[in-house]
Specification:
Elements lengths: L14 H16 L1 H9 L6 H25 L1 E5 L4 E6 L5 E6 L5 E6 L1 H6 L2 E6 L8 E6 L1 H11 L11 H11 L2 E5 L1 H9 L3 H25 L4 H6 L3 H31 L2 E6 L2 E6 L4 E6 L4 E8 L1 H6 L2 E7 L4 H6 L2 E6 L1 H12 L7 E3 L4 H24 L4 H25 L1 E4 L4 E5 L4 E6 L4 E7 L9 E8 L2 E9 H17 L6
Helix pairs in contact: 1-3, 7-10, 8-10, 14-15
Length: 499
């Protein structure tokens, strides 16, 4: 049955429970010190007072939750093209969101909401750090219909052939991309090594501190311990620990990827993309292609061999803190699926055009910062406090080779590709990323040139968008200025509706 969103309506009646738990959570945060005091002095406090206090608090929370439910209404003002939410108990609040400013609608379901059988719907624009509108308890069919109304991307046209129109609608209701469990497994074991490594290091560091404290409390003969340790034992232990560390990293990556992106589906819906995924906390997100600011396609060597990649979509944000939260990730899709998504976002597959390369001085400066300065620091530390240099020299050699290789590949992969419709910035050492933007989405352009770079005609450029910045350092400055003039002209003459 089609809902009449032009009339104010409330959330699902069962949503009172969601309001109750949400209010209870806020009260627990506010009264946390008092609750801790009650727990510590539980035996000293009269149990009757505790029971009466808890019962009164729950009663008050229940009344507040019911009033929140009763006073919360939402509707669509079709005449003014606005989405309106009224809420509040004593202080009434009216939130008005223009439909053409909505860039993203999320349908989420936490564990409690899944048990109760309701969904949450968030409306987001680029105007602030918070969600402009949030409905915490709504049925799934109603949420799907409301988000369709909020993000109606195409003009309503009567199809020339009713059969054809029905076929198109049926086709769009079916997912055209499904990320399989095997693809998520491949993605999990080939990505996020550094994040998982530092997570394990932090965990092991905490365990090590506890062990040290325990060792200090008991008396252990160090010479007796050293007699049981030999070089072979140290080598075997080191190899075992390295293998365990690698296994833990792979397990953490796989578990995190599967839990977050389980059952990932992408569906076409009236010119928009509907993304749904999640194992415990399910999430559904709708995005408008014209609101997309930066699209990033990344792949490393292993992923290239397995024909998988990660695609990230950045929309307009209100600040750097919200930038990371607003990134929409599509992990584990193959090259054909990537092309289908890019066609929906840009109506064509972006092609690399003229290539700009960085000057070799970019590599030299990076090597000086990451290798030269640390080695100079180590040398002066050793000069002031001489120690055995043999172990330190092994570490320094490994560091120079490892960091030098990273900086070399970063320099070799750093490119800026330009054609009439797209700008593509390529970067990365291991995970090679291609960030794609359209010139009409640029908000501002910053160019810079140090005075000692003028004679060799090199400079840097930063493209500012509502979804983040893209920078390219030490390229041909004449070419950079030429394309800056073209982009500024296109920005002034463009009528794209990306906000």
């Amino acid at each position: 049955m089609e809902s009449h969103f032009n009339e104010p309506q409330r959330q699902s009646p069962i949503g009172v429970l969601i309001m109750f738990f949400d209010t209870l959570r806020h009260y627990i945060k506010a009264l946390a010190p008092l609750l801790v005091l009650w727990i510590l002095k539980f035996n000293e406090v009269n149990k009757t007072y505790i029971f009466l206090g808890i019962s009164s608090a729950l009663l008050i929370i229940g009344i507040v939750a019911y009033l929140k439910y009763r006073n919360f209404t939402f509707y669509l003002d079709y005449e003014n093209e606005e989405f309106i939410i009224n809420e509040g108990i004593f202080n009434k609040t009216k939130t008005t969101v223009q439909l053409n400013k909505i860039q993203q609608v999320n349908i989420n379901q936490s564990l409690i909401q899944r048990i109760i059988g309701v969904y949450a719907l968030d409306v987001d624009t680029a105007g602030s750090n918070n969600k402009e509108g949030e409905i915490k308890a709504i049925s799934h069919p109603l949420a799907l219909e409301l988000k369709s109304r909020l993000l109606d991307n195409e003009k309503k046209k009567k199809p020339a052939d009713e059969t054809t129109g029905a076929a198109i609608e049926a086709n769009e209701s079916q997912p055209f991309i499904k990320i399989s469990l095997s693809s998520l497994f491949k993605m999990g074991i080939t990505s996020n090594y550094i994040k998982s490594f530092w997570l394990i290091v932090a965990f092991l560091g905490s365990i090590y501190n506890h062990i040290q404290e325990f060792m200090n409390e008991i008396s252990i003969d160090e010479h007796q311990v050293d007699s049981y340790i030999n070089e072979k034992a140290i080598f075997r232990t080191s190899v075992t620990l390295i293998l365990i560390l690698i296994a833990c990293i792979l397990m953490i990556n796989f578990g995190r990827t599967v839990i977050k992106y389980f059952d990932y589906k992408i569906t076409k819906q009236k010119g928009s993309l509907l993304l749904s995924f999640g194992l415990f906390n399910s999430k559904s997100t709708i995005i408008k292609p014209e609101k997309v600011q930066i699209t990033s396609v990344s792949m490393n060597y292993f992923q290239k061999k397995m024909n998988i990649l990660e695609l990230k979509i950045k929309q307009a944000t209100s600040g750097e803190k919200e930038e990371a939260k607003s990134v929409i990730e599509i992990p584990g899709c193959n090259r054909l699926e990537r092309d289908e998504i890019l066609k929906l976002l840009f109506n064509k597959i972006p092609q690399k055009g003229i290539m700009l390369e960085p000057n070799w001085r970019k590599l030299g400066f990076a090597l000086f910062l990451t290798i030269g300065l640390p080695l100079i620091g180590i040398y002066y530390i050793w000069k002031w406090n001489p120690v055995d240099m043999m172990p330190l020299s092994y570490f320094a050699t490994f560091y120079v080779i490892f960091v030098g290789a990273i900086q070399f590949f970063k320099f070799r992969n750093s490119r800026l590709f330009i054609n009439d419709d797209f700008i593509i910035r390529q970067s990365g050492a291991w995970d090679i990323s291609n960030e794609i933007i359209e010139p009409s989405k640029i908000q501002a352009i910053t160019t810079s040139q140090l005075f000692w770079h003028k004679s060799i005609n090199i400079g840097s450029i930063t493209l500012h968008t509502a979804g983040g910045n893209i920078s390219f350092q030490l390229g041909n400055y004449d070419m950079i200025k030429h394309y800056v003039n073209l982009w500024l002209y296109e920005i002034e003459t463009s009528d794209s509706n990306w906000m």
